[in-house]
Amino acid sequence: MKTEDLIAALAADNDTKQAPMSRTFGFDLGLGFCVSALFFFSFLGLRPTFFASLDEPRFLFKFLFSATMAASGLVLAWRLSRPDGAPGLARRAVFLAPVLVAVASLIEMAVVPSDQWAARMIGHNAVHCLTLIPLMSLAPMAGLFLALRHGAPSDPHRAGAAAAMASAGLAALLYAANCPDDSPFFVAVWYMIASSIVVALGWFAGGRLLRW
Amino acid sequence: MRAALAGDGAAYRRLLADLVPFLRRICLNSCARAGLSASDAEDAVQETLLAIHLKRHTWDQDQPLKPWLAAIARNKMIDAARRRGRRAETDIADFEDVLAAPAEAENFERELDRQGALRLLDQLSARQREAIEAVSIRGESLRDAANNLGVSEGALRVSVHRGLKALAELYRKLNA
pTM for the whole thing? Predict the structure, then answer.
């Protein structure tokens, strides 16, 4: 096919409109998160002490941590979704949530006697944390991957990892409402490991699925 | 591009035609660096045009157009180089006698290329191929082509769009 012929075909196809990126992002991610939320409220639910715990800083910190991770992942995924997208200074957002939990852990070290550190870190059910966060991140991740496929990321690995980070943050946000362990030590170890698994998965999946 | 995105087909066609020299320059340059031939560059130009078209909604209209275009071209050039690298590794022996005669080699390459493009078109479904050939190679308007093929204009438009997406998909499979 000659290049002029191709141009004629492309011009003939100009009337076929694609949805704007923002709409696809919002819709696909929203749908994915709803699936996970539905799963959460059907099988896990809020922990019995949820409302009683709403004034405990440790409990609230888990949500701050998760929301920060979700937001920074989302900003990065959005920036990386276009061919000319560069994260710029936003790339530092990757470190926001880890820094938060590191600072919180230092404070915890200052206020809790050291003989309780190990018990707080190991918590009650680390296995739950390690399975449920990755599990609940799958649906939002699928949504974000669809949105990124609609876009055109120049660096599919990084875009996939950013999408995974956003999804892990959203999954952690849900899981935190059920998880009985509130210590920043627990978050620093188990939430971080669970999220890292998801991010690694997103990195590899991105390389395979986000090429265009 | 703004006019094109707003639905002005003639402006879009003019823009794409104006882009070709710019893209050709980028593609020829990087092809020369990677040791690829001019016909590889033309392949890359076409692949880039296809990507520009299918991903035109990813251009943020508040941003300058050029970096966006260059980013797409760069992406496609990397694909082309990768593809060529693999082909060269496997097929170099078959080309040895051709490489000895440059003029012949060029003809041969051109022939290969023509076959390549036709083969890609052949892999589309009959309906998509007919639709694309009608509006591109025969240069008919959507309405005339639809009349000649005996389908509705809307159906033809869908066939053209699906055909173009399928072409991009075929290019991507070449890279996989």
Answer: 0.86
